Each structure stands twice: as structure tokens, then as C-alpha cells.
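Objective 1b: paired records.
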Amino acid sequence: MHIRTLLLTSLSVLALASGAVAQDHGDEPQEVIITGNGYRVTKDAMTSHVDVVTRTELDQKPAQGLGDALAYMPGVRSSSFAPGASRPVIRGLDTYRVLVLNNGLGAVDVSALSPDHAVGSDPLEAKRIEILRGPSALAYGGNAIGGVINVIDDRIPTSPASDGVDGRVTAQLSSVDDGKQLGASAKAGKGPLVFAFDLSHRKTEDYDTPVGPESRYLTDSEGEAPDTGEVQTNSASELTTWGAGASWIGDFGFAGLAIKQTEMAYGVPGHSHEGEDAEGPVTIGLDQTRYDVRSEFNLSLAGFNRLTADAGHTDYEHTEFEGGEAGTRFVSGGSEYRVALIRDEANGLSGVIGVAGLERDFEAFGDEAFLPSTQSRQTGIFTKYRYDKDVWGLEGGVRFDRTALSAAGFDRDFNTMSGSVGGFYRPSDHAFAGISLTRSERAPSDVELLAEGPHAGTGQFVVGDAGFDTEVGQSLELTGHITVDRHNRFAIDGHLYASRFDNFIDLRPTGDEADGLPVFQYVQTDADLWGFELEASAGLFGWKGQAVRLEASYDFVRGDTDLGPIARIPPSAVSARLTSEGGGWASHLEVRSVADRTTRLAELELPTQGYVMVNLFSSYRFASGVTVFGEVRNLGDAEIREATSATKDLVVAPGRNVRMGLAWSF
């Protein structure tokens, strides 16, 4: 059934997080609506771990891809394949178990297919980013068992410009890679017609490194001399995005449409290591065009007070070049929709009900097209409710999906069901305890079923299995928040979770070679993951108009299968940040220590040395709305390799970096 027909006949799933609560000028929202609920729930009332990154924070972050920009958060790491390709890893899970969304709809890129493929969304275009770990993303079914990253922009305005014209301009420079970044956006119109546009550009050169790019573990294992290089060759990248949208806003709600264009080129460092490929380094050129429609209508119908209807269509293409010659080309086009009836809290009861669907066509061309042309179709029905009696509450939901995958000589349907139930106890405004239990089913992806061929970007010959069954995961999460005194002088937040997977799909080496590359085969096994995340903060003292505060976090995860440890599981990490704010100034000293990963390694996985990273940051906000900032990043010029990266032994993170920039909100 076509998307537009489904839009006219369906009710569904998910209210988007941005519409009713986004604040102008990049300020922290007073109320947080978490993706996956639809109805309004504050962050501290969720029974699983969620975070929100605001526009103000994003403006002052380093110029990075999505995964690297979020990797400092507890339970979140980055695939860190290359500066141009960094996808989020949540609690040790990635690719098809972590969804990356734009305003609640799928990106329809191919970033989950392989770690060298870039995400089609960039932090610079976001107004806010929501990070949902584990079962808090039930509305998206089994493909979100790891979590959801929702990049929310204001390209389709949901509220009028407060001063007739609102906007922002950001710019920054970085020394380690001769990096330059510029972003601008504006919203014009007090209603009912409101327009918006945004433009961003980022360019970096090959960056300087504190040590040679090849790790000592790799050179020692191959009997080579230590790498003495000082530059990560083929690490340059360039990104340009622009978008425009318009909305009609009134007492009824809003309705609008938008277009976004993304062009990106980036290197895939380290590829020429094996065999000293005479064809030269691998680079990737990406082109994506996205069209979106979003709407929200106020109503009164059988206890529901809002109706949202959203749809998007994306045309995506990227080409892998080898030494300047075009090699494999990946083309993905698809549409997705969500329509939802929402009941915001009334007499303690909140809820959402509806349906969602997508259709996607994928093609690959070239000698290394390791996946055949495939068609994917999915329709899901979703409902979730929450009953809140102040001191205690219950919530639960269920989603049914039908997924159809087809290719030449292949046609399979999968019926999956995901459900969750939870409860919480809130004895006061300063204490909260919650528990949630989730059972989630995931249909195998096209690459897990049908892959067979060489892939230059990862240096593997990848083989799938067309006979796979659905992957089933059961997860339990315990969460708690405590705040001491009404001025938030001391707060602690903790999350303990465990997951059990049946038919867990894992990529394992076979020991064979094909086309001169090691063969990696997708297999099904059982798996267990468990871990915890802790965050604490304390107000220390006041000093010359400055409020000094200490923040700390720690995370840990362990993952095993019946075949051995899961590859690239993140080692534990502890972070501490001493902040000082007041009188327009905001400064912090941050120390992040990541442990070694030298035991419990998967087959062919080399150890990873831990590191300590120190960052020193300061900013000043003028009355005009201009904020200037500066940072010395990786102050100690430490060797940083992420255990979650498939290229960690060929790619080292940048060395000491001096950044400076400004952000102007008007």
C-alpha cells in the first residue's frame, strides 16, 4: 500500500518530541517530551534512561559527526570509523539495533549497513537531540532495542517567531585539522504563515595525531616497526547542508512542509594498509535529498486531544571512490509515515494509539556490491498508556509489525511483536524509582540475510544467511533519581539493566579468505548484556559571583554470546567535570578516563589501550546574545583509540586541539 494511502486511512504511533515544547533562542526547554511516548512526560519521570542535548550545548561542541558528538554521555559511544563516519553505539549495541531519526522519522540512509557509511543527519542542523537507551523506545519496535537517537530541527516551524524574526549563527575554527564550521538558521513570521531556513558548512583537513596512526598492538602482531607518523592521512572531510520549510500555524495547531539537501565527502583512513592497495585510498561522496510533512491538530475525540500526521521521503546515494576512480555505488530511496492520536495527561491517564509504516528500495552497483537490490516494506500498529497517581504509577504498551523483504529469488515476511510494562514510585518531588520490562522482536535486515561479497571500506568479505529467524530480546531496567534539597545542591541518577537475546545476529570471522579478504559470516546465537550507568552532581560553593559545581558519571557494560564475547564492547569510563557559571561566564575542566580493553576479546580483536583525556573550556555570553568560546581539547595530547571502532588499530583520534568560536542567537 502506498504511503499517501496509508496516511489517509491510518491512525498512529508517535507524537514528535519537538513540536509543543521547543523553546526559541536555544534555551533549555521547561518541559521535556520524550520521543516514543507522544504524550508529555518530563525526563525525570521516565522509567528508563533518557537525555536531551540542547541547541546551546550543540552550538559549542566540536565540529563532529553524530556519534562522536554524543559519545561522552553515559552508556553512549561512537563507532568512530572515521571523522566522516561516526554512528552512535548504545550500551554495546549498534547498527540495526539503534535507530537514528529525524523528527521521529527514519533517516533512510545506509549508515547501519556498514560502519564506514556516514549518518545522513548532522548535529549542526539540530535544535535538540534526544537520546533514549534501551526499552524507552518501544514505539519503534525491535529495531530500537538498543535505543534511539532523535535529531530534532525546526525546519518545519511549530510556533511563530517571537520577535518576527528569530535565528542563530554559529562559527568555529580548530587547529588540529585546520577545521572551519559555519551554521545559520532563521525563522520569520508571527503567523499564521511562518518560514524557516538553515545552512551549514564544515570542512576539515587531515588531522594531526599524538602518535602514529597504527597501534603498537597491530605493528607488534605483524612484526613491523612502530608507526612514527604524525598525521592521520585520508581523514579530511567536507559537509554542506541546506534546508527550508514553511508552516501554517493557528489555534487548530500547525501544518507544514520542508526540504533538506546534504552533500558530504570524506576519507576512509587506514584502508590502504592491507596489501598497500595500488588503487589508492578510499573516499566516499554522499548526496541526500529529504522531503518532510509534519502536522498537529488540536481536537476532542474519545478522550484524545491531539492528532499528529507526519511523513517523509528521502533519496540517498553515495559512491565509494578508490584512488579517484568510482567504485561501488549505493542508492537508497524510501518513505516513512506516522499518524497518532494522543491523550495528554487528564485525571492521571495519558496515552497514544496509531500506526506507522515505511517502504524502502535499495540498490548497489559495482564490483564490490556485496548486497543485491532489495525492497523493504513495514507496517506497524502501536499503543502505549501511562497512569500517574502522583506517588505511584504504571505504564505499558505494545507494537505489532509486519515486515516484508524481497530481492531477486528471495521473498520473506516477518511478523513481530514488541511490548513493555513498567511501574514507578515517587514518594516526593526529590525521589523517583522505576522498573521496566520489555520484550522486543526484530526482523533480520536485508544485509544480515542477503549479503555476499567484498566491501572495500571495511576490508571484509561479508556473507549473510537467508534462513535467519527473528531476533528476540528481553530487557529489564531499574532506574532511580534522588535530589537533595530543593536547590538541587546534590543529585544522583542511576540505571541498572540486563538483556537476554535469542537468535542474536552477530558478524563473526570464519578463518577463510575470498577475493583476498577475510570472510566474515552473519550467524545467530544467544547473547546476554548487562551494565549500569551512574551520574551525580553537587553544588560546591560560590566564588566572586560564580557558582562552582562538580559533575561525575560512570558507565559499564558487558556482553557475551554462546560463541564468545561480543566484539567491540565499550570498556568502562568515568568522567568528572568541574564547572563554574555566573555573570555571563561558563567554564569547565573535564577529565575523562576510559579503561583498557585487554581481556574478553572477540576472535581476531586486538586489545585496546585505555586513555585519559583532559579538556579545558570557557565561554562568555554578551547581553546582545553573542556567546564567544574557546577550548583546549585533549590537553595532554593523549593517544585515544575507541574500542568500539572497527578501525581502532589504523585510526587514532586527533591530538591536542585549540578551538574557538561564537554563537549568536537573535
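Objective 1b, second protein:
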Amino acid sequence: MSERDPNRRDPYRRDPYRRDPEQRERRPRSPEQRKQQQRDGSPKTYTRLTHPLVRDARDAPFRRATWDEALDRAARGFRAAQGAFGMFSCARATNEMNYVAQKFARVVMGTNNVDSCNRTCHAPSVAGLSAAFGSGGGTSSYEEIEHTDVIVMWGSNARFAHPIFFQHVLKGVRNGARLYAVDPRRTSTAEWAESWLGLNVGTDIPMAHAIGREIIHAGLVNEEFVRRATTGFEEYRALVEPWTPSLAEKVTGVPAAAVRELAHAYARAERAQLCWTLGITEHHNGTDNVRALINLSLLTGHVGRYGSGLQPLRGQNNVQGGGDMGAIPNRLPGFQDILDTGVRAKFESAWNTVIRPRYGLNLTEMFEAMEDGSLRAVYCIGENPAQSEADAEQAVRRLRQLDFLVVQDIFLTKTAELADVVLPATAGWAETEGTTTNSERRVQRVRRAVVPPGEAREDIDILCDLAARLGHDWKYADAEAVWNELRSVSPDHHGMTYERLEEHQGIQWPCPSTDALEPPFLHGRLWDPDPAVRGRPAPFGIVQHDPPVDLTDEEYPIRLTTGRRLDSYNTGVQSGGYASPLRRGESVELSPEDAERYGVVVGEQVRVTSRRGSVLAPVWVDTALRPGLAFMTFHFPDEVDTNRLTIEANCPIAGTAEFKASAIRIDKLPAPTHVR
């Protein structure tokens, strides 16, 4: 273990405010300070859309329009852009909406250019899991984490970002599970862990390789599973051999003893769950990061069994379902490969169309196509890429280059402000009938609870009206009719009638039969003694360490990482309209050492600059951070647009940007001069 300066604060030391994040946010302040903080921390409130809006010229203001005028104008714009069209579907809307949206792109517009915010967050998880197992979903149910022996939370502050799932984690801990947190920050989640492994940002692969090497050298490999159910082990063994715990300590900053402890705990456990979120995926090599974690499960046999599995935690209520419904450029509904001739033939027969036998552009590639003019029109449903994409200034510039943009949403977002036509839709979580799919692959019914305001209409009805104007007469009596069409073409969903979903309070896919339910975990086939039943073995991923693209140096010495807070949601469009006693607005969080180094105090406004842009933000001092590491969120872009700082360095496999690793500097602002 490397020596530590005895005079330096130990970042592993407990902070009395860290056990309870709510308590930490309530550090002693006067009533006046509390009121001022609440005023300063209130994000912009967005007004609900209640009627269609159109522009009479590109730079003209919006005016109210009838539905017929708005839909006619949208249809004309899309018809003019045939062959240069892209669809952004919505990870917060229902499965049924996403199914119809991707069908609109493929049948009406003749393109596979359809994607959603899955690309921004968990596309590397889908790519990595698909490469290993042929399926892009998490392998375990939430219940299993309550009955496992070891839980590894890697790159995930689940207590803030996934509070419902974290309740299952806490049940597991109370039932005796040992929790390990691997994260650059000593988060609220880490406070519940037996051990926190505070690695340097972007060193997940060296950490995983060192754990794998230790498992091999300690003789803890599940040799029978590796021999029967995997391929590429010898190549993997050679890959990780140089990564001793001592070398890993030099690269990751995590003590070698802590690396060994986690390796032995994970490998020796009868059952273990490995969970991750955007700390793993939002990197320029996010898919490689995911493959490195999957390797550990293959090495130990912690997959395909009850209580042992891999769990990517999805942030949106239906980001899993959007991909399952085919709202991605390379898969048709039911996660069926678009390049498979038989799969295409099935959908072509069902839809009476011809599907192009090639992958479409993903979200990242569509933005690049806006730049070169090969993508001229976009239909954006429920997404806000003007504020959620990395390098936000570039994203807005590209959206402005479009010939035609239609936004269908519940609020006039920053993206909607750039549109030619705005269509008011219903909220998928309260005003719509349908289903959604969560991180454990559980499909659940959602029901209309309130009447939508004004002239707001169901997304599916809007899509069908547009399709009719473009020559496709689709008739769906209700959301159940859409779902039954999906069931007819997706074997994984065939057994999920609305009646059964209600009876079982949700069903996990796959569910091919209307008479039975499958086990709650995936890939049990890998344990079958019959090779024919086992099917395709799971390959080890041969992935190399590749440091962050945006290197720190003397000019930009601080590593900025981003994430979520418990009190807010994504770009704040929805959560900003609601007060929270925890909310203090956006800030740049610094370690006590860095705050002292720059001579700044809590609440002081500073300039935060990266190689792409700069923002002004108040300082917050957090003992969870080590020197050289800063933290910000993307919840308050109207006040502090953090994504002006982030870098669009994309994973070549999944297209996800490196939100988690930007290089920045902190500039103290000059004291204001008082004029008499």
C-alpha cells in the first residue's frame, strides 16, 4: 500500500454528514441563508403545452395553430425530407408509443434512423450485454438483490439516482449481504458499503482487470463454468496478467489490499450481484467498460443463477422498454436484429412494407449527419437534446441547421423552442394508458389518472394522424390494440396480455407463453449440461485500458465528473416545477483542499472552464471529493449549463459521450468594484 501524507485529510475517513445525505444538506444555516438558498436554487419553471404552435418563418415567433394546420405542416415538412429524416423517441413514454414511433420511422418514412436517450446513457450496457449473451437486458430481478451475498455497486450512486432500487439493496444488506462501492466519489451509496474503492475517473478497466487477475492467481475461478459456458479464457488470462494489484493501485489510486479484498469477496460468494450505472457507460470506451465487468461474472459463474447476475440500472422509467420496442437503429421490436432476413420478413408481412436491410443512424450519428446536411428533418418526441447532449453549444448549432424540426412534448423545452412545429402531448405517467418496462425487464401497466389539459393529445393518436397524411391509414382502438400487435411479432412479449400483466402485477420478459412464466433471471441455459441447450457460449471481452480523451494538464488541472442528485431529474424540465427541501441549485463541488487552493468559499461564484466553453457557478465544498476531482449535475441548464463543459468523445460501438471525464479549471472572479 502506498504511503499517505499524515497531514493530509484522509478521503476514506467517515464524515458525520455523509451517512444521511438529507442531514448533510441540512448543515447548520441561518433562516435567512435557507431562504436565500431556496430562491437561488429554484430552476426555471416550464409551462405546460396545451395547444399546437407553428412558425410562419424560421425566425418568426410561435403562434397558436389548429391541430389540422399543425399536422398538415408537419406532414409537408417530413415529405420534403424523405430520405433525410430522423426520429428521436421517448424513454419516458409508454412501450406502445415507442412501438408506433419506430414503426412510423420504418414504414412511413422508410428509414431505420430512430433512437432515444438510451444512446446518452445505457447504450454501452445494451451493446456489452448483447455481445456477451445475445440479449441487452439486465440478467436479474430486483428481488434477487435482497437474497444475495455480495453486492458490488460500480460507478453508481444508486441511493440518489435509483432510490427505489436502492431500497432493495438495503434489504439485501440487512439480510447479510456485503456491499462494495466502486466510485471516484465517496457517495451516499458508499456510506452503506463495507468498503469504498475510490478509483480515479476513467480507470475502471484496470480495476476490473486487477480483480480478474487476483481471482485467477488465488485459484478462485469457476473452472467448470468457464470451460463449459465461455470462450476466450486463455486470451483473457494473458490480457489481465500484467495488472497486478500493485500496478492497479498506481493507475487507479485504490490500495492494492482493497482490490484483493473485493476480488476474494466476489469470487468466494455463493451468490453475487454486480450493478452499474452511468459511471461505467458515459465514457468514450463505455462498451469496453461494460465488457470488463461482465468478464468478472464469467470468471466466477455469477450469472444465470438466482441471486447472481449483472444489473445495469436504468434511469428513465421506460428506457429499457424503448429499446425493447425497437426505438433503436439496429433492432426491431423484441430486440430482433434488423439484419436477420427471417426477422425482416416477419415484420414486412405484418406491416405490409419493405424494411431496409441495414442499420440506421443512432442519436450521435444523427447529430453528426445534421452537420454535413445529410439529415435535414427530425421528429423529436419527448426528448430535450438541446440540453442533454454533450457539448451543448454544438448540439444547439446542429439542431438549428435542420430544414425542419417537429417537437412533440408536454413542455416547451429548449429543444421545442428551436422547432418549426410544436405538438402538445399527454404525460405518459398520468394521462395515458399503456405499459412500461423497468430495469429488471418487468413490463407493468400504467393507467390514465387525470384528463390532459387543453388540446393535448395522445402520442399514438398524433402519430397515426401524421401517418394518415403521409399515406398510411393506421387504426388502433386503444393502447391494448397496439400492445397486441407488438405481441404478435415479439416472441419475448407474446405471453404478456394486459389481463396477465394485471394479474401478476407485471411480468418480466422473456414471456413467450400465455400459460407459464419464465425464471426471474436470464441465461440459466449456460448452466445446462447439454451443449444443445446451453447454446452459444459467452465470450470474454478482450478490452484494453484507454484513459479519458480530455486530459488534465496545467491549464485544465481538475477532472470534472457529472451525475445526479436525489432532488432533481435530468434537465430539470419536469422536476423544476416542484419544490424540494434538499434543492440548492447547481454548483461546482470541490474538495476542501481545492477550495483552499483556489481561495474560494461555499456560495462564492467562480468561472468553470473547459476546452469547449465556460459557465459561472457557485462553489460547494464536499468532503466526498478528493483533491483534483470536481462534481456537477445537468439538472439546472437554464441557470448553469454544465453540458457546455462536457466533451463529445463518443464510444465507437455504442455512440455514448464521455460525460464523466472532462478537464476543467476554476477561475476566481475579481472582486466587484463599487462606483460612488
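DSSP finds 24 helices and 27 strands in the chain. The radius of gyration is 25 Å.
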